Amino acid sequence: xxxxxxxxxxxxxxxxxxxxxxxxxxxxxxxxxxxxxxxxxxxxxxxxxxxxxxxxxxxxxxxxxxxxxxxxxxxxxxxxxxxxxxxxxxxxxxxxxxxxxxxxxxxxxxxxxxxxxxxxxxxxxxxxxxxxxxxxxxxxxxxxxxxxxxxxxxxxxxxxxxxxxxxxxxxxxxxxxxxxxxxxxxxxxxxxxxxxxxxxxxxxxxxxxxxxxxxxxxxxxxxxxxxxxxxxxxxxxxxxxxxxxxxxxxxxxxxxxxxxxxxxxxxxxxxxxxxxxxxxxxxxxxxxxxxxxxxxxxxxxxxxxxxxxxxxxxxxxxxxxxxxxxxxxxxxxxxxxxxxxxxxxxxxxxxxxxxxxxxxxxxxxxxxxxxxxxxxxxxxxxxxxxxxxxxxxxxxxxxxxxxxxxxxxxxxxxxxxxxxxxxxxxxxxxxxxxxxxxxxxxxxxxxxxxxxxxxxxxxxxxxxxxxxxxxxxxxxxxxxxxxxxxxxxxxxxxxxxxxxxxxxxxxxxxxxxxxxxxxxxxxxxxxxxxxxxxxxxxxxxx
Length: 542
Ligand code: FRU
Prior knowledge:
Blueprint: E1 18-29, E2 32-40, E3 51-57, E4 63-70, E5 81-89, E6 93-101, E7 107-114, E8 125-127, E9 145-146, E10 152-153, E11 159-167, E12 170-178, E13 184-186, E14 192-194, E15 200-209, E16 227-235, E17 240-249, E18 254-257, E19 266-267, E20 274-281, E21 286-293, H1 299-305, E22 307-308, E23 310-311, E24 315-319, E25 326-330, E26 338-349, E27 353-356, E28 364-372, E29 380-381, H2 389-395, E30 407-413, E31 421-430, E32 433-441, E33 456-460, E34 469-476, E35 479-484, E36 489-494, E37 506-511, E38 517-527, E39 532-534
Parallel strand pairs: 1-22, 4-39, 29-31
Antiparallel strand pairs: 1-2, 2-3, 3-4, 5-6, 6-7, 7-8, 9-11, 10-11, 11-12, 12-13, 12-14, 15-16, 16-17, 17-18, 17-19, 20-21, 21-23, 21-24, 24-25, 26-38, 27-37, 28-34, 28-38, 30-31, 30-37, 31-32, 32-33, 34-35, 35-36
This protein binds beta-D-fructofuranose (FRU).
Beta-D-fructofuranose (FRU) binds next to strand 1, strand 5, strand 15 and strand 20.
Protein backbone atom coordinates (compact mmCIF):
# COMPACT_ATOMS: atom_id res chain seq x y z
CA UNK A 1 0.00 0.00 0.00
CA UNK A 2 1.23 3.46 -0.88
CA UNK A 3 2.30 5.52 2.10
CA UNK A 4 -0.59 7.55 3.43
CA UNK A 5 -2.99 4.94 1.99
CA UNK A 6 -2.51 1.95 4.27
CA UNK A 7 -6.12 0.79 3.80
CA UNK A 8 -6.27 0.49 -0.01
CA UNK A 9 -6.75 -3.10 -1.02
CA UNK A 10 -4.34 -5.09 -3.18
CA UNK A 11 -6.68 -7.71 -4.61
CA UNK A 12 -10.21 -6.72 -3.57
CA UNK A 13 -11.95 -4.59 -6.20
CA UNK A 14 -11.99 -0.84 -5.64
CA UNK A 15 -12.57 2.09 -7.99
CA UNK A 16 -9.64 4.52 -8.39
CA UNK A 17 -11.32 6.91 -5.98
CA UNK A 18 -14.59 8.12 -4.44
CA UNK A 19 -17.69 6.23 -3.38
CA UNK A 20 -18.78 2.71 -4.39
CA UNK A 21 -21.71 0.63 -3.15
CA UNK A 22 -23.63 -2.22 -4.85
CA UNK A 23 -22.20 -4.52 -7.51
CA UNK A 24 -24.30 -4.18 -10.68
CA UNK A 25 -24.74 -5.94 -14.00
CA UNK A 26 -21.87 -8.42 -13.80
CA UNK A 27 -21.54 -10.55 -16.91
CA UNK A 28 -19.13 -12.36 -19.20
CA UNK A 29 -19.39 -11.32 -22.82
CA UNK A 30 -17.11 -12.38 -25.69
CA UNK A 31 -14.06 -13.08 -23.54
CA UNK A 32 -14.41 -10.18 -21.12
CA UNK A 33 -15.85 -10.01 -17.61
CA UNK A 34 -17.75 -6.80 -16.96
CA UNK A 35 -18.25 -5.34 -13.55
CA UNK A 36 -20.45 -2.31 -12.95
CA UNK A 37 -21.04 -0.65 -9.62
CA UNK A 38 -22.97 2.08 -7.86
CA UNK A 39 -20.59 5.01 -7.97
CA UNK A 40 -20.54 8.63 -6.87
CA UNK A 41 -17.71 10.07 -8.96
CA UNK A 42 -17.81 13.35 -7.04
CA UNK A 43 -16.81 12.26 -3.57
CA UNK A 44 -16.26 9.43 -1.10
CA UNK A 45 -19.83 9.57 0.19
CA UNK A 46 -23.27 8.38 -0.92
CA UNK A 47 -25.29 10.67 -3.14
CA UNK A 48 -28.59 9.66 -4.71
CA UNK A 49 -27.43 10.79 -8.17
CA UNK A 50 -25.55 7.57 -8.71
CA UNK A 51 -23.55 6.71 -11.80
CA UNK A 52 -22.67 3.22 -12.99
CA UNK A 53 -18.92 2.75 -12.68
CA UNK A 54 -17.58 0.22 -15.19
CA UNK A 55 -14.48 -1.99 -15.15
CA UNK A 56 -13.46 -4.95 -17.29
CA UNK A 57 -11.23 -7.95 -16.74
CA UNK A 58 -10.01 -11.09 -18.47
CA UNK A 59 -9.68 -13.02 -15.21
CA UNK A 60 -11.72 -11.30 -12.46
CA UNK A 61 -8.38 -10.45 -10.79
CA UNK A 62 -6.77 -7.68 -12.86
CA UNK A 63 -9.07 -4.84 -13.87
CA UNK A 64 -9.17 -1.94 -16.29
CA UNK A 65 -11.25 1.00 -15.12
CA UNK A 66 -13.37 2.65 -17.81
CA UNK A 67 -15.59 5.73 -17.88
CA UNK A 68 -19.02 5.51 -16.27
CA UNK A 69 -21.46 3.42 -18.30
CA UNK A 70 -24.56 5.30 -17.13
CA UNK A 71 -24.83 8.87 -15.91
CA UNK A 72 -28.03 10.40 -14.53
CA UNK A 73 -28.91 12.83 -17.32
CA UNK A 74 -32.23 11.65 -18.77
CA UNK A 75 -35.70 12.44 -17.42
CA UNK A 76 -36.18 8.79 -16.44
CA UNK A 77 -32.94 8.66 -14.39
CA UNK A 78 -31.99 12.30 -13.80
CA UNK A 79 -31.93 11.77 -10.04
CA UNK A 80 -29.87 8.60 -10.10
CA UNK A 81 -28.94 5.45 -11.99
CA UNK A 82 -29.50 2.85 -9.30
CA UNK A 83 -28.86 -0.87 -9.14
CA UNK A 84 -29.68 -3.36 -11.86
CA UNK A 85 -28.67 -6.52 -13.65
CA UNK A 86 -27.42 -7.86 -16.97
CA UNK A 87 -29.00 -10.54 -19.14
CA UNK A 88 -27.36 -12.15 -22.16
CA UNK A 89 -30.15 -12.79 -24.65
CA UNK A 90 -30.22 -15.70 -27.09
CA UNK A 91 -28.09 -14.66 -30.06
CA UNK A 92 -25.44 -13.38 -27.64
CA UNK A 93 -26.85 -9.91 -27.03
CA UNK A 94 -26.41 -8.27 -23.64
CA UNK A 95 -29.02 -5.98 -22.15
CA UNK A 96 -29.11 -4.07 -18.91
CA UNK A 97 -32.11 -3.27 -16.72
CA UNK A 98 -31.59 -0.73 -13.95
CA UNK A 99 -33.54 1.55 -11.66
CA UNK A 100 -33.77 5.21 -12.50
CA UNK A 101 -34.89 7.93 -10.15
CA UNK A 102 -36.94 10.06 -12.51
CA UNK A 103 -37.50 13.81 -12.60
CA UNK A 104 -40.45 13.40 -10.20
CA UNK A 105 -38.31 11.34 -7.81
CA UNK A 106 -40.12 8.13 -8.67
CA UNK A 107 -38.27 4.84 -8.95
CA UNK A 108 -38.76 3.31 -12.40
CA UNK A 109 -37.04 0.52 -14.35
CA UNK A 110 -35.03 1.30 -17.47
CA UNK A 111 -33.54 -0.70 -20.33
CA UNK A 112 -30.18 -0.10 -22.02
CA UNK A 113 -28.08 -1.91 -24.64
CA UNK A 114 -24.44 -1.61 -25.75
CA UNK A 115 -23.94 0.96 -28.50
CA UNK A 116 -21.43 -1.15 -30.43
CA UNK A 117 -21.26 -4.90 -29.93
CA UNK A 118 -17.91 -5.01 -31.70
CA UNK A 119 -16.27 -2.84 -29.02
CA UNK A 120 -14.64 -5.51 -26.81
CA UNK A 121 -15.19 -3.42 -23.68
CA UNK A 122 -18.77 -2.32 -24.46
CA UNK A 123 -17.83 1.13 -23.22
CA UNK A 124 -20.87 3.01 -24.47
CA UNK A 125 -24.44 2.14 -23.65
CA UNK A 126 -27.64 3.42 -25.21
CA UNK A 127 -30.67 3.91 -23.02
CA UNK A 128 -33.88 2.74 -24.64
CA UNK A 129 -36.05 5.44 -26.22
CA UNK A 130 -39.16 4.07 -24.52
CA UNK A 131 -37.80 4.32 -20.98
CA UNK A 132 -39.02 3.78 -18.38
CA UNK A 133 -40.04 0.27 -19.42
CA UNK A 134 -41.63 -0.36 -16.02
CA UNK A 135 -43.47 2.32 -14.09
CA UNK A 136 -44.20 2.55 -10.41
CA UNK A 137 -47.14 0.24 -9.57
CA UNK A 138 -50.25 1.70 -8.06
CA UNK A 139 -50.25 1.87 -4.29
CA UNK A 140 -46.45 1.69 -3.95
CA UNK A 141 -44.46 4.59 -2.54
CA UNK A 142 -42.25 6.31 -5.15
CA UNK A 143 -39.06 5.34 -3.28
CA UNK A 144 -40.01 1.69 -2.74
CA UNK A 145 -39.55 0.13 -6.17
CA UNK A 146 -36.10 -0.88 -7.34
CA UNK A 147 -33.25 -3.19 -8.29
CA UNK A 148 -34.43 -5.40 -11.20
CA UNK A 149 -32.92 -8.90 -11.37
CA UNK A 150 -31.40 -10.70 -14.31
CA UNK A 151 -34.31 -11.74 -16.54
CA UNK A 152 -35.11 -15.36 -17.26
CA UNK A 153 -36.96 -16.96 -20.18
CA UNK A 154 -39.35 -19.83 -19.77
CA UNK A 155 -40.95 -22.36 -22.13
CA UNK A 156 -43.98 -20.15 -22.74
CA UNK A 157 -41.63 -17.67 -24.47
CA UNK A 158 -42.06 -15.05 -21.79
CA UNK A 159 -39.27 -13.23 -19.99
CA UNK A 160 -39.53 -12.70 -16.27
CA UNK A 161 -37.83 -10.44 -13.76
CA UNK A 162 -38.21 -9.37 -10.14
CA UNK A 163 -38.26 -5.88 -8.67
CA UNK A 164 -37.77 -5.27 -4.93
CA UNK A 165 -40.44 -3.36 -3.05
CA UNK A 166 -42.55 -3.05 0.07
CA UNK A 167 -46.06 -2.17 1.08
CA UNK A 168 -46.93 -1.39 4.69
CA UNK A 169 -43.64 -3.01 5.82
CA UNK A 170 -44.33 -6.21 3.88
CA UNK A 171 -41.21 -6.93 1.81
CA UNK A 172 -42.15 -7.82 -1.77
CA UNK A 173 -40.47 -9.30 -4.85
CA UNK A 174 -42.77 -8.19 -7.67
CA UNK A 175 -42.79 -10.45 -10.70
CA UNK A 176 -43.04 -9.05 -14.23
CA UNK A 177 -43.62 -10.75 -17.59
CA UNK A 178 -42.63 -9.63 -21.07
CA UNK A 179 -42.58 -10.98 -24.64
CA UNK A 180 -40.05 -8.45 -25.91
CA UNK A 181 -38.18 -7.06 -22.84
CA UNK A 182 -39.70 -3.63 -23.55
CA UNK A 183 -43.35 -4.11 -22.63
CA UNK A 184 -43.69 -5.53 -19.15
CA UNK A 185 -46.76 -6.45 -17.15
CA UNK A 186 -46.95 -7.12 -13.46
CA UNK A 187 -48.07 -10.61 -12.51
CA UNK A 188 -51.13 -10.71 -10.21
CA UNK A 189 -49.23 -12.10 -7.27
CA UNK A 190 -45.64 -11.31 -6.32
CA UNK A 191 -43.09 -14.12 -6.54
CA UNK A 192 -42.76 -13.84 -2.79
CA UNK A 193 -43.54 -11.48 0.09
CA UNK A 194 -43.03 -11.52 3.84
CA UNK A 195 -44.81 -9.23 6.31
CA UNK A 196 -42.73 -7.11 8.65
CA UNK A 197 -39.45 -7.33 6.77
CA UNK A 198 -39.45 -3.84 5.21
CA UNK A 199 -38.24 -3.06 1.71
CA UNK A 200 -36.42 -5.81 -0.18
CA UNK A 201 -33.38 -4.43 -1.96
CA UNK A 202 -31.30 -6.08 -4.67
CA UNK A 203 -33.25 -9.34 -5.00
CA UNK A 204 -31.25 -12.16 -6.62
CA UNK A 205 -33.14 -15.20 -7.92
CA UNK A 206 -31.35 -18.11 -9.53
CA UNK A 207 -31.30 -21.90 -9.94
CA UNK A 208 -28.72 -24.23 -8.36
CA UNK A 209 -28.06 -27.88 -9.17
CA UNK A 210 -28.99 -30.22 -6.34
CA UNK A 211 -25.91 -32.37 -6.89
CA UNK A 212 -23.20 -30.31 -8.57
CA UNK A 213 -20.84 -27.45 -7.79
CA UNK A 214 -21.43 -26.11 -11.30
CA UNK A 215 -23.53 -23.01 -11.75
CA UNK A 216 -26.73 -22.85 -13.81
CA UNK A 217 -27.74 -20.13 -16.22
CA UNK A 218 -30.77 -18.25 -14.97
CA UNK A 219 -33.16 -19.44 -17.69
CA UNK A 220 -32.45 -23.17 -17.39
CA UNK A 221 -35.68 -25.14 -16.91
CA UNK A 222 -36.22 -27.85 -14.38
CA UNK A 223 -37.62 -30.93 -16.09
CA UNK A 224 -36.63 -33.59 -13.57
CA UNK A 225 -36.20 -31.83 -10.26
CA UNK A 226 -32.47 -31.41 -10.62
CA UNK A 227 -32.70 -27.78 -9.59
CA UNK A 228 -33.69 -25.71 -6.63
CA UNK A 229 -34.12 -21.95 -6.68
CA UNK A 230 -32.50 -19.49 -4.34
CA UNK A 231 -34.14 -16.17 -3.49
CA UNK A 232 -31.87 -13.67 -1.79
CA UNK A 233 -33.04 -10.28 -0.63
CA UNK A 234 -31.35 -7.39 1.14
CA UNK A 235 -33.28 -6.11 4.12
CA UNK A 236 -32.56 -2.40 4.26
CA UNK A 237 -33.60 -2.09 7.90
CA UNK A 238 -30.99 -4.71 8.87
CA UNK A 239 -28.39 -3.86 6.24
CA UNK A 240 -28.11 -7.62 5.72
CA UNK A 241 -28.63 -10.10 2.87
CA UNK A 242 -30.80 -13.14 3.64
CA UNK A 243 -31.68 -16.10 1.45
CA UNK A 244 -34.03 -19.04 1.23
CA UNK A 245 -33.88 -22.21 -0.85
CA UNK A 246 -37.04 -23.43 -2.52
CA UNK A 247 -38.90 -24.84 -5.46
CA UNK A 248 -40.00 -22.72 -8.39
CA UNK A 249 -42.56 -23.73 -10.94
CA UNK A 250 -42.80 -21.24 -13.81
CA UNK A 251 -46.03 -22.78 -15.17
CA UNK A 252 -47.85 -22.02 -11.96
CA UNK A 253 -45.63 -19.01 -11.33
CA UNK A 254 -45.16 -20.32 -7.87
CA UNK A 255 -42.16 -20.16 -5.57
CA UNK A 256 -42.22 -22.17 -2.36
CA UNK A 257 -39.27 -21.72 -0.01
CA UNK A 258 -38.46 -24.66 2.20
CA UNK A 259 -38.07 -22.37 5.19
CA UNK A 260 -39.76 -19.04 5.74
CA UNK A 261 -37.64 -15.94 5.30
CA UNK A 262 -37.03 -14.42 8.73
CA UNK A 263 -34.34 -12.41 10.47
CA UNK A 264 -32.73 -15.70 11.48
CA UNK A 265 -32.64 -17.03 7.91
CA UNK A 266 -29.38 -17.98 6.26
CA UNK A 267 -27.02 -15.24 5.21
CA UNK A 268 -24.45 -15.10 2.46
CA UNK A 269 -22.10 -13.43 4.89
CA UNK A 270 -22.48 -12.74 8.58
CA UNK A 271 -20.20 -9.71 8.62
CA UNK A 272 -19.99 -6.38 6.83
CA UNK A 273 -21.59 -7.32 3.53
CA UNK A 274 -24.66 -6.19 1.59
CA UNK A 275 -26.42 -5.86 -1.76
CA UNK A 276 -24.70 -8.93 -3.21
CA UNK A 277 -25.47 -10.09 -6.73
CA UNK A 278 -24.56 -13.28 -8.58
CA UNK A 279 -24.08 -14.06 -12.27
CA UNK A 280 -23.49 -17.17 -14.35
CA UNK A 281 -20.02 -17.52 -15.84
CA UNK A 282 -20.37 -19.65 -18.97
CA UNK A 283 -16.58 -20.04 -19.32
CA UNK A 284 -16.10 -22.07 -16.19
CA UNK A 285 -19.75 -23.05 -15.73
CA UNK A 286 -19.99 -21.54 -12.31
CA UNK A 287 -22.09 -18.97 -10.50
CA UNK A 288 -20.07 -16.12 -9.08
CA UNK A 289 -21.14 -13.69 -6.42
CA UNK A 290 -19.80 -10.39 -5.21
CA UNK A 291 -21.10 -8.14 -2.45
CA UNK A 292 -20.54 -4.60 -1.24
CA UNK A 293 -18.28 -4.35 1.81
CA UNK A 294 -18.89 -0.94 3.31
CA UNK A 295 -16.41 0.98 5.44
CA UNK A 296 -16.73 0.98 9.23
CA UNK A 297 -14.64 4.12 9.77
CA UNK A 298 -16.05 7.65 9.86
CA UNK A 299 -17.07 10.07 7.14
CA UNK A 300 -14.07 12.22 8.04
CA UNK A 301 -11.88 9.15 7.48
CA UNK A 302 -13.52 8.66 4.07
CA UNK A 303 -12.72 12.25 3.11
CA UNK A 304 -9.13 11.77 4.24
CA UNK A 305 -8.80 8.53 2.26
CA UNK A 306 -10.63 9.91 -0.78
CA UNK A 307 -12.57 6.69 -1.24
CA UNK A 308 -15.13 4.42 0.43
CA UNK A 309 -16.31 0.90 -0.29
CA UNK A 310 -14.72 -2.31 -1.56
CA UNK A 311 -16.17 -5.48 -3.10
CA UNK A 312 -15.85 -8.92 -1.55
CA UNK A 313 -13.48 -11.20 -3.43
CA UNK A 314 -15.48 -13.02 -6.16
CA UNK A 315 -16.79 -16.32 -4.80
CA UNK A 316 -18.14 -19.43 -6.49
CA UNK A 317 -21.49 -20.31 -5.02
CA UNK A 318 -23.33 -23.64 -5.10
CA UNK A 319 -25.73 -25.79 -3.07
CA UNK A 320 -24.35 -27.89 -0.22
CA UNK A 321 -24.83 -31.67 -0.60
CA UNK A 322 -27.31 -31.59 2.26
CA UNK A 323 -29.37 -29.09 0.16
CA UNK A 324 -29.88 -26.97 3.26
CA UNK A 325 -27.52 -24.09 2.50
CA UNK A 326 -25.20 -22.54 -0.05
CA UNK A 327 -21.45 -22.98 -0.05
CA UNK A 328 -19.05 -20.27 -1.16
CA UNK A 329 -15.38 -20.33 -2.00
CA UNK A 330 -12.94 -17.77 -3.43
CA UNK A 331 -12.68 -18.27 -7.21
CA UNK A 332 -9.66 -20.35 -8.20
CA UNK A 333 -8.12 -17.43 -10.10
CA UNK A 334 -6.80 -16.21 -6.75
CA UNK A 335 -3.97 -18.70 -7.25
CA UNK A 336 -2.54 -16.40 -9.94
CA UNK A 337 -1.58 -14.09 -7.11
CA UNK A 338 -0.08 -16.69 -4.77
CA UNK A 339 3.61 -16.52 -3.86
CA UNK A 340 5.91 -17.53 -0.96
CA UNK A 341 3.94 -20.55 0.15
CA UNK A 342 4.52 -21.72 3.72
CA UNK A 343 2.97 -24.90 5.07
CA UNK A 344 3.14 -27.45 7.86
CA UNK A 345 1.14 -30.35 9.19
CA UNK A 346 0.18 -31.89 12.49
CA UNK A 347 1.21 -29.22 14.90
CA UNK A 348 -0.21 -29.38 18.39
CA UNK A 349 -1.36 -26.02 19.75
CA UNK A 350 -1.40 -26.34 23.52
CA UNK A 351 -4.06 -24.48 25.48
CA UNK A 352 -2.98 -20.85 25.82
CA UNK A 353 -0.42 -20.84 23.02
CA UNK A 354 0.44 -18.78 19.96
CA UNK A 355 2.27 -19.83 16.85
CA UNK A 356 3.51 -17.21 14.42
CA UNK A 357 3.10 -17.91 10.70
CA UNK A 358 6.24 -16.43 9.22
CA UNK A 359 7.57 -16.07 5.72
CA UNK A 360 4.57 -14.37 4.12
CA UNK A 361 3.33 -10.80 3.85
CA UNK A 362 0.76 -10.89 6.61
CA UNK A 363 -1.10 -7.79 5.40
CA UNK A 364 -1.77 -9.34 1.98
CA UNK A 365 -2.32 -13.06 2.37
CA UNK A 366 -4.42 -16.17 1.78
CA UNK A 367 -4.40 -18.59 4.74
CA UNK A 368 -5.93 -22.07 5.01
CA UNK A 369 -5.88 -23.82 8.36
CA UNK A 370 -7.61 -26.93 9.66
CA UNK A 371 -8.08 -27.95 13.29
CA UNK A 372 -8.56 -31.43 14.69
CA UNK A 373 -10.15 -31.86 18.12
CA UNK A 374 -10.13 -34.82 20.46
CA UNK A 375 -11.61 -35.54 23.91
CA UNK A 376 -14.79 -33.86 22.77
CA UNK A 377 -16.74 -35.59 25.57
CA UNK A 378 -15.27 -32.85 27.75
CA UNK A 379 -16.93 -30.07 25.81
CA UNK A 380 -18.74 -27.27 27.67
CA UNK A 381 -22.53 -26.97 27.69
CA UNK A 382 -23.87 -24.01 25.77
CA UNK A 383 -26.11 -21.87 27.94
CA UNK A 384 -29.53 -22.57 26.37
CA UNK A 385 -30.37 -18.89 26.34
CA UNK A 386 -27.34 -18.21 24.09
CA UNK A 387 -29.00 -18.69 20.74
CA UNK A 388 -27.57 -15.60 19.05
CA UNK A 389 -24.06 -16.41 17.81
CA UNK A 390 -23.16 -12.76 17.27
CA UNK A 391 -23.95 -12.13 20.92
CA UNK A 392 -21.82 -15.11 21.96
CA UNK A 393 -18.93 -13.63 19.95
CA UNK A 394 -19.44 -10.20 21.48
CA UNK A 395 -19.70 -11.35 25.08
CA UNK A 396 -17.01 -14.02 24.75
CA UNK A 397 -14.44 -12.17 22.71
CA UNK A 398 -11.07 -13.64 21.74
CA UNK A 399 -9.59 -12.90 25.18
CA UNK A 400 -12.13 -15.06 27.08
CA UNK A 401 -10.72 -18.46 27.82
CA UNK A 402 -12.99 -21.42 27.18
CA UNK A 403 -12.35 -25.11 27.02
CA UNK A 404 -12.47 -25.85 23.29
CA UNK A 405 -11.73 -22.41 21.96
CA UNK A 406 -11.22 -19.74 21.20
CA UNK A 407 -8.77 -21.10 18.61
CA UNK A 408 -8.10 -19.72 15.14
CA UNK A 409 -6.08 -16.92 13.55
CA UNK A 410 -4.87 -13.55 14.73
CA UNK A 411 -4.72 -11.46 11.56
CA UNK A 412 -3.23 -7.99 11.14
CA UNK A 413 -1.54 -8.25 14.53
CA UNK A 414 0.94 -5.62 15.70
CA UNK A 415 4.28 -6.54 17.30
CA UNK A 416 2.94 -6.28 20.82
CA UNK A 417 -0.48 -7.71 19.83
CA UNK A 418 -2.29 -4.58 20.98
CA UNK A 419 -3.79 -4.62 17.52
CA UNK A 420 -5.25 -7.87 16.21
CA UNK A 421 -8.30 -9.16 14.38
CA UNK A 422 -9.19 -12.60 15.74
CA UNK A 423 -11.07 -15.11 13.60
CA UNK A 424 -11.83 -18.10 15.77
CA UNK A 425 -14.06 -20.98 16.79
CA UNK A 426 -15.62 -22.20 20.03
CA UNK A 427 -17.15 -25.64 20.40
CA UNK A 428 -20.00 -26.40 22.79
CA UNK A 429 -22.63 -29.02 23.26
CA UNK A 430 -26.35 -28.46 23.47
CA UNK A 431 -28.96 -31.18 23.90
CA UNK A 432 -26.39 -33.88 23.20
CA UNK A 433 -25.19 -32.27 19.94
CA UNK A 434 -22.08 -30.29 19.16
CA UNK A 435 -22.39 -26.62 18.34
CA UNK A 436 -19.58 -24.80 16.52
CA UNK A 437 -19.54 -21.01 16.69
CA UNK A 438 -17.36 -18.95 14.35
CA UNK A 439 -16.42 -15.40 15.33
CA UNK A 440 -14.64 -12.43 13.80
CA UNK A 441 -13.61 -10.16 16.67
CA UNK A 442 -12.72 -6.62 15.63
CA UNK A 443 -12.67 -5.17 19.17
CA UNK A 444 -8.85 -4.90 19.14
CA UNK A 445 -8.43 -4.35 15.42
CA UNK A 446 -7.22 -0.78 15.72
CA UNK A 447 -5.98 1.67 18.32
CA UNK A 448 -7.90 4.32 16.41
CA UNK A 449 -11.14 5.72 17.80
CA UNK A 450 -14.32 6.52 15.93
CA UNK A 451 -14.44 3.15 14.20
CA UNK A 452 -17.29 0.65 14.41
CA UNK A 453 -15.54 -2.41 15.89
CA UNK A 454 -18.60 -4.66 16.10
CA UNK A 455 -17.85 -8.38 16.35
CA UNK A 456 -19.60 -10.85 14.08
CA UNK A 457 -20.56 -14.45 14.65
CA UNK A 458 -22.45 -17.37 13.17
CA UNK A 459 -22.93 -21.09 13.66
CA UNK A 460 -21.07 -23.52 11.40
CA UNK A 461 -23.11 -26.57 10.51
CA UNK A 462 -20.47 -29.28 11.02
CA UNK A 463 -19.89 -32.15 13.42
CA UNK A 464 -16.45 -31.57 14.96
CA UNK A 465 -16.23 -35.22 15.92
CA UNK A 466 -16.22 -36.26 12.27
CA UNK A 467 -15.07 -33.17 10.43
CA UNK A 468 -11.97 -31.10 10.92
CA UNK A 469 -12.75 -27.45 11.48
CA UNK A 470 -11.59 -25.57 8.39
CA UNK A 471 -10.88 -21.88 8.15
CA UNK A 472 -9.73 -19.90 5.14
CA UNK A 473 -9.04 -16.19 5.53
CA UNK A 474 -8.19 -13.60 2.89
CA UNK A 475 -6.34 -10.67 4.43
CA UNK A 476 -6.05 -7.48 2.40
CA UNK A 477 -4.93 -4.43 4.44
CA UNK A 478 -8.37 -3.25 5.59
CA UNK A 479 -10.53 -6.28 4.83
CA UNK A 480 -10.50 -9.71 6.46
CA UNK A 481 -12.75 -12.15 4.60
CA UNK A 482 -13.17 -15.55 6.25
CA UNK A 483 -14.69 -18.86 5.13
CA UNK A 484 -15.55 -21.35 7.88
CA UNK A 485 -16.33 -25.05 7.45
CA UNK A 486 -15.18 -25.14 3.82
CA UNK A 487 -17.43 -22.24 2.81
CA UNK A 488 -20.52 -22.98 4.92
CA UNK A 489 -20.18 -19.80 6.98
CA UNK A 490 -18.61 -16.59 5.62
CA UNK A 491 -17.74 -13.54 7.71
CA UNK A 492 -16.24 -10.38 6.24
CA UNK A 493 -14.86 -7.55 8.37
CA UNK A 494 -13.32 -4.12 7.73
CA UNK A 495 -10.44 -3.06 9.98
CA UNK A 496 -8.13 -0.06 10.13
CA UNK A 497 -4.96 -0.95 12.04
CA UNK A 498 -2.49 1.83 12.77
CA UNK A 499 0.48 -0.34 13.80
CA UNK A 500 -0.19 -3.62 11.98
CA UNK A 501 0.15 -2.10 8.53
CA UNK A 502 2.17 -3.15 5.49
CA UNK A 503 5.34 -5.01 6.43
CA UNK A 504 4.70 -4.53 10.16
CA UNK A 505 1.63 -6.75 10.26
CA UNK A 506 1.99 -10.24 11.74
CA UNK A 507 -0.09 -13.39 11.57
CA UNK A 508 -0.55 -16.08 14.25
CA UNK A 509 -2.44 -19.26 14.87
CA UNK A 510 -3.71 -19.17 18.45
CA UNK A 511 -5.47 -21.28 21.02
CA UNK A 512 -6.81 -19.52 24.11
CA UNK A 513 -8.82 -22.53 25.22
CA UNK A 514 -7.67 -24.81 28.01
CA UNK A 515 -7.77 -27.94 25.82
CA UNK A 516 -5.12 -28.42 23.16
CA UNK A 517 -6.06 -28.59 19.49
CA UNK A 518 -4.08 -29.95 16.55
CA UNK A 519 -3.47 -27.94 13.40
CA UNK A 520 -3.73 -30.81 10.95
CA UNK A 521 -2.65 -28.62 8.08
CA UNK A 522 -1.72 -25.05 7.38
CA UNK A 523 -0.97 -23.47 4.00
CA UNK A 524 -0.45 -19.75 3.60
CA UNK A 525 0.64 -17.53 0.75
CA UNK A 526 1.56 -13.92 0.23
CA UNK A 527 -0.64 -12.44 -2.46
CA UNK A 528 0.75 -10.30 -5.23
CA UNK A 529 -0.99 -7.05 -5.98
CA UNK A 530 -3.64 -7.31 -8.68
CA UNK A 531 -3.44 -4.77 -11.50
CA UNK A 532 -6.00 -1.98 -11.40
CA UNK A 533 -5.31 0.26 -14.37
CA UNK A 534 -7.15 3.19 -15.84
CA UNK A 535 -7.71 3.10 -19.52
CA UNK A 536 -6.05 5.96 -21.37
CA UNK A 537 -8.36 8.00 -23.60
CA UNK A 538 -6.68 6.48 -26.65
CA UNK A 539 -8.01 3.09 -25.59
CA UNK A 540 -4.58 1.80 -24.65
CA UNK A 541 -4.14 0.15 -21.30
CA UNK A 542 -1.58 1.90 -19.08
C1 FRU B 1 -28.70 -1.01 -1.88
C2 FRU B 1 -29.29 0.18 -2.60
C3 FRU B 1 -30.22 -0.25 -3.71
C4 FRU B 1 -30.19 0.94 -4.63
C5 FRU B 1 -28.77 1.40 -4.52
C6 FRU B 1 -28.57 2.88 -4.60
O1 FRU B 1 -27.51 -0.71 -1.24
O2 FRU B 1 -29.96 1.04 -1.69
O3 FRU B 1 -31.51 -0.58 -3.27
O4 FRU B 1 -30.54 0.61 -5.94
O5 FRU B 1 -28.29 0.93 -3.27
O6 FRU B 1 -27.23 3.21 -4.68
